[in-house]
Design goal:
Subcellular location: Periplasm
Main location: periplasm
CATH topology of the largest domain: Dipeptide-binding Protein, domain 3
CATH architecture of the largest domain: Roll
Low-confidence stretches: 4-21, 23-28
Shape: globular
Protein name: ABC transporter substrate-binding protein
Pfam family, one: SBP_bac_5
Structural class: alpha+beta
Number of strands: 19
Mean pLDDT: 93
Family: Belongs to the bacterial solute-binding protein 5 family.
Helix content: 25-40%
Largest sheet: 11 strands, mixed
Strand content: 15-25%
Radius of gyration: 23 Å
């Protein structure tokens, strides 16, 4: 651990136990009563800036430390509920959304939160144009028009105008995503760095991006105090929070990847919650009277993808053959037991239009036939980038073994979340095994990810997973666009069903399972509940006895 991190944690608490926990050293005693310590694989975190962060771990941190206009209702995912917004209306033409803000809200800094902060937050997401930028540019916002289209009417009224009469649930769900987090404009601009405009970036400021990579400027129930990559994230209660105050003084996410290490730390009292458990360790926790299990199906799909820039993988027969070289039954019954269910389509169960088709199974003979048809009767060699965490590593090894039976020799390239994501986002992989959590609870989130690629050039502004795998699909992209504008719910669902079956039959994606998130929890912890999405794992009501 760095000296800087040790000093920061020491300032937060004089507890020797707390310092030891965050440092990854053996604890001197049980975790403090006012502190929740979670073991969690957080190596996917790249930035804490809501305008840049787009990883699953960061979504949970952002949702507990920032406020948004609206949030997904964790009890009924067909609805969104107010957060900063007290109420909202949609114009008769379906294109202008007007939000009345709750009065008296303050940022952790003490600055008042107004509609200017909401407008600035959306403006910086659009102009920074990081990975989450497409969430708002898909609504017709751009660097040139965002100041006009997303504006403060008065201190308590925010107005946003979109370019088409989308289904209101789509727009509201976009606003419920963590990149819609509202940041403190005054604080962020005071920390902004000057930038020389260029052909790639037109603005003379970084909009506080460098500061917010590790800093904080929110109004949520917790303040982010520390993030040290691959070590720890520390959240502290925000005493300026205008909602129900958290019961805990702080929450520590302690980076720990191995399931067995998490289980042992939970059993010994070094941690309160274990977040990355594999089936073998789940059984041990289930049989321990001092521990409990909490679980929730997630809108998270795990898949492997085949980069179409690789000439072998660009052959449709090869992509189909790979889908027959996955032992779904064995993976489901062993590696995923308790933490996932086999699911072969891109929409998770529970979303509008989701289907449960599972046409693929392990069939080596069928795969060999397809490879021969592709002109590769002896197979070929290829690499697979894999995040070094379970059950992902185990699934990758299973695929490596079954693929070898058809002559496909896979070299697994392990890495942490940041390494594998960076390579994937640059289209520099061959095969990638990854996970996708819906950015917002609307089928367009996944459809646009896996069935949409409006520009297949390397400098495309919209970098979907289809783009990341260089899959050019003009007709499916048009169909995905059409689904967004279908006002009839049943007809809209039918469009998504058709798109899923087309992707299932002919695409560079093999969808394998839908995640069931499971946490091992100490009996000392009360009120801990996993939500339906990674940004609805709320910590406000958690306490310890």
């Amino acid at each position: 651990m760095t000296m800087q991190l040790r000093k920061t944690i020491a300032r937060l608490s004089a507890s020797a136990c707390l310092i030891a926990l965050a440092a990854g050293m053996p604890a001197l005693a049980d975790t403090p009563k006012d502190t929740l310590v979670e073991a969690f694989a957080i190596d996917d975190i790249i930035s804490l800036d809501p305008a840049e962060a787009f990883e699953l771990s960061t979504a949970e941190i952002t949702s507990n430390s920032y406020s948004l206009l609206v949030r997904l209702d964790p009890e009924d995912t067909s609805k969104v509920v107010p957060d900063l917004a007290e109420s909202w209306t949609v114009s008769d033409d379906g294109m202008t959304y007007t939000f009345k803000l709750k009065p008296g809200v303050k940022f952790a800094s003490g600055n008042p939160l107004t509609a200017e902060d909401v407008a600035f937050s959306i403006e910086r997401v659009v102009k920074l144009d990081k990975s989450p930028g497409f969430l708002f540019t898909q609504l017709g916002l751009s660097g040139e028009n965002v100041a006009e289209k997303a504006r403060a009417v008065d201190p308590e009224t925010f107005e946003m105008t979109v370019d088409k009469p989308y289904a209101p649930s789509f727009v509201l769900n976009v606003l419920s995503a963590t990149p819609g987090a509202v940041v403190d404009k005054e604080l962020v601009l005071s920390k902004a760095k000057a930038v020389t405009p260029s052909a790639e970036y037109a603005y003379d400021t970084d909009f506080g991006n460098e500061f917010l990579k590790t800093g904080y400027a929110g109004s949520g129930p917790f303040v982010t105090r520390v993030w040290k990559a691959n070590e720890a994230v520390v959240l502290e209660r925000n005493d300026n929070y205008t909602g129900e105050k958290p019961k805990l003084a702080r929450v520590i996410y302690r980076h720990m990847k191995e399931s067995s290490a998490q289980r042992l730390a939970l059993e010994s009292g070094d941690i309160d919650v274990a977040r990355n458990l594999d089936p073998n360790d789940l059984n041990a926790i289930e049989n321990n009277p001092n521990l409990t299990l909490d679980s929730a199906p997630k809108g998270t799909i795990y898949y492997i993808s085949f980069n179409q820039k690789n000439p072998n993988l660009a052959k449709p027969e090869v992509d189909e053959a790979m889908k027959y070289l996955i032992d779904y039954d064995a993976i489901g019954s062993t590696l995923l037991k308790g933490v996932g269910v086999i699911h072969q389509t891109f929409l998770p169960t529970g979303q509008l239009g989701a289907i449960e088709d599972t046409p693929y199974k392990l069939d080596v003979a069928k795969a060999k036939e397809l490879l021969a048809k592709a002109g590769l009767p002896d197979g070929f060699s290829v690499t697979m980038d894999v995040r070094s965490t379970q059950p992902v590593s185990g699934v990758a090894e299973s695929i490596q073994q079954t693929a070898a039976q058809a002559g496909v020799k896979i070299e697994i390239i392990p890495g942490d979340g940041k390494q594998t994501l960076t390579k994937y986002r640059a289209r520099n992989h061959d095969i990638y095994i990854g996970q996708w959590g819906s950015d917002y609870w609307d089928p367009n989130s996944n459809a646009q990810t896996f069935a949409y690629n409006a520009d297949n050039s390397d400098d495309s502004p919209l970098k979907t997973s289809a783009w990341r795998n260089a899959w050019d699909l003009p007709e499916l992209s048009k169909q995905t666009d059409a689904a967004l504008l279908e006002s009839d719910t049943e007809k809209r669902a039918a469009i998504y069903e058709d798109i899923q079956r087309k992707v299932l039959a002919d695409s560079p994606f093999a969808f394998i399972w839908q995640q069931v998130e499971v946490a091992g929890v100490s009996n000392k912890v009360e009120g801990y509940k996993l939500g339906p999405t990674f940004d609805s794992n709320y910590l406000t009501n958690v306490s310890k006895n």
